[in-house]
Amino acid sequence: MIRQNGITIKDAMGLKGMKNCKIIAGNRGLYNTISKVNITADPDFADWVDAGEFLLTTAYSFKNEDIAIQKELIKNCAKKGLAGIGIKIYPYLDKLPEEVLDLADELDFPIIDIYHETPLSDIMTSIFKEIFNKQATLLQRIENVHEQLMNVVLSGGDVNDISRVVYENLQNPILINLEFNDNVLMGLEELPEDVRIEILNNYGRFYNGIDKVREKKFNETVEIITGKHVRRMVMPIIVKNNVYGHMFTWALKTPLGGFDLSILEAASTTIALEVLKQLSIRDVENRHRSEFIEDLLSLDVNRQKKAMEKVSVFKLEPDRQYKMIVVQLENQDNKMADELLQKVSLLNNDTEGLVEGLKLKAFIVNKTDSLYILLSLTKECNSEDKINNFCSQLEKVLLRRLNIKDFKIGVGRSYWGLSKVYKSYIDAVKAIISGELIDSGSVIHFEQLGIYKILCQDYLSEELERFYQVTISKLVEYDERKSTELVKTLEAYFLNNGNLKKLSEELYTHYNTTLYRIQRIQAITGMSLDNHKDRLNLEIALKIKKILRK
């Protein structure tokens, strides 16, 4: 919404120039803000007035217009966002029609009856003078707040110190939520318990709509707090064109206006600088971690040796059992580089919180579109149940920011010693690549791949291709040429343990049709499903087909 700075209709009514003037309709709009004043004698003014204007006119043109046109004029004034209208009614009319006044009341649009002896220019001058004085005072107060915030920054203060400056000037409770910090609360402890609970619930509901959360604009609404209408302001904290948090305030003690908005804008910029500093520090730390982990996972002996020389810097113990977990983001091609980096960085932060909460020991590195989590398996964390629990909790953490299809978690086997960590990494990557072959969900443990653990070895790729060619390649080619479903039938055959009746029911085919398909499969492949060796070869060939993505 557009916010105008100025004085309210109620303030204007108290000025000397408005003496003997009275409001005759639209009383609920008394707090509309007047940002400027205009005088007109032309009833067709709608195209050249702006929101926030207080329009001054006479009822001269009204006396020649019927009620419908007068009502349309008031409706247009309210629609354009004018603060109100002052009409010198006498001596042109005795009064405005009741229908016009009722409409103004309905629209909360103030109509002021201007005293007939008061020059309109005097009203304009007095209002402009008051607006100017208020703006000067406002600028002085804002400058004072800027100075306070600058002193906090120069003295090495943090977000808590910034929020204290904001609270002291707003005199309303505030809540600051940042991606990398715990929530900062100011002034909530002074509220009654029921109000405090409702405020926190109201804050939580804001984050129910992820689209709204990521909007890079100021949000102002009227909320229901313990049965009362309360104005709420939410200012996003934007760093590198991404939203990293929000600053909330509620008008529980004093009204919120232009001055309060200016404070929030200044504070959000100051907090953004603090966040940027933290991000820069994290980026440098992550770069060193990334270089270390790349050397550690390298097959180059010299690079591994270089990494082992740095283990003490990262507080890792060479002689301990380790397990590598890789989180791979998928379907992120449409994301901008900064947005993707922010997302991975936030996931890193969430994962660190999870590790700390579960009292585990882990070395975490974020890459461009992935996370590497090196778990140190101490005596307290060296059971399958604890590893599985960590992976389950990690999946939940990721689901707070991603869709279920947007990530895969590969879990490698455990190996003794940092020098063998690269093997666990290879396992984790293969688990991700092969996971869809066994349809195991988002979390894929290398140990659960079954025969795929053997088949997905890189050095076997040539042999797998040859095996595929001499087993079911002709069957695949036949399906493509004849538009048949023999490969699908063979897959269903193994899923139903060779039971042709169940196979027919699953494929919705007649038993004789199923029998004919089985005969064609055997004829084309030259292999018999009655022979246990041929059955094994055909079943393995189907798995190889998936690996080769044929």
From TrEMBL:
Residues 307-432 form the CdaR GGDEF-like domain. Residues 486-544 form the PucR C-terminal helix-turn-helix domain. Residues 12-131 form the Purine catabolism PurC-like domain. Belongs to the CdaR family. PANTHER family: CARBOHYDRATE DIACID REGULATOR, DNA-BINDING TRANSCRIPTIONAL ACTIVATOR ADER. This is PucR family transcriptional regulator. The lineage of its organism: Bacteria, Bacillati, Bacillota, Clostridia, Peptostreptococcales.
